[in-house]
């Protein structure tokens, strides 16, 4: 399908955004463009004794929605290892204890959501885009 191939080309050429204290992955950038109202890279301290109890002095959430008290973690392939699964489970428990829900979204799911949103946008605004993207119509 022409649209799907075009989307794959777009996804592979999205630049990564660099920040002095953190670096977004391509998939985090994509997710952020779909949900611009979410706070990015929010740091949560684990408190006194946190290193011993939680294995870290702080956790940085990829995205945070303060209205629903939910964090969204964009998980790449590195989260499939046994070590990362244990570390993620401990991290999720920390947030659960603070009353914060964690939603983990795979890179693959971010790509699917991105393509779905783009297709819906083209269906709604297709005539606006037709001149600029004539080869897709």
From TrEMBL:
<dbReference type="Pfam" id="PF04480">
    <property type="entry name" value="DUF559"/>
</dbReference>
<protein>
    <submittedName>
        <fullName>DUF559 domain-containing protein</fullName>
    </submittedName>
</protein>
<feature type="domain" description="DUF559">
    <location>
        <begin position="57"/>
        <end position="112"/>
    </location>
</feature>
<dbReference type="InterPro" id="IPR007569">
    <property type="entry name" value="DUF559"/>
</dbReference>
């Amino acid at each position: 399908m022409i649209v799907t191939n075009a989307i794959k080309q777009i996804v592979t050429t999205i630049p990564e955004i660099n920040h002095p204290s953190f670096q977004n992955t391509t998939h985090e950038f994509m997710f952020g463009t779909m949900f611009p109202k979410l706070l990015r890279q929010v740091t949560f301290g684990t408190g006194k004794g946190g290193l011993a109890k939680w294995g870290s002095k702080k956790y940085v959430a990829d995205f945070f929605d303060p209205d629903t008290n939910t964090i969204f973690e964009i998980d790449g392939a590195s989260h499939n290892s046994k070590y990362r699964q244990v570390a993620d489970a401990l991290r999720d428990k920390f947030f659960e204890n603070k009353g914060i829900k964690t939603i983990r979204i795979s890179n693959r799911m971010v790509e699917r959501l991105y393509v779905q949103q783009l297709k819906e946008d083209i269906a709604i605004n297709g005539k606006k885009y037709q001149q600029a993207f004539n080869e897709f119509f």
